[in-house]
Write a structure and sequence with these properties.
Distance between the termini: 46 Å
Number of strands: 3
Organism: Bradyrhizobium niftali
Protein name: Response regulator
Number of helices: 1
Strand order of the largest sheet: 1-2-3
Order of helices and strands: EEEH
Structural class: mainly beta
Radius of gyration: 16 Å
Length: 69
């Protein structure tokens, strides 16, 4: 299952909005996000496609850190 990066899924059991619990690395180009429902305690694992140029790593590329001369 893939979804939009900002989307929080609805719980399939109680229909409440689920909260992001953790993010784990997935296969190349994807990450796994675990969502938990605070109402019924169900968990869902969702695979998200990620663009490596739109992650926090871009800050390192634009930073002051340079290779030795």
């Amino acid at each position: 299952m893939t979804a939009c990066i900002n989307e929080r899924p609805m719980c399939p059991v109680c229909k409440h909005r689920m909260a992001l619990a953790r993010i784990s690395p997935g296969k190349a180009g994807f990450e796994k996000r675990t969502f938990e429902c605070s109402t019924c305690e169900r968990t869902e694992l969702v695979s998200f496609a990620v663009d490596p140029m739109k992650t926090d790593a871009v800050g390192w590329l634009a930073g002051e850190l340079n290779p030795p001369r």
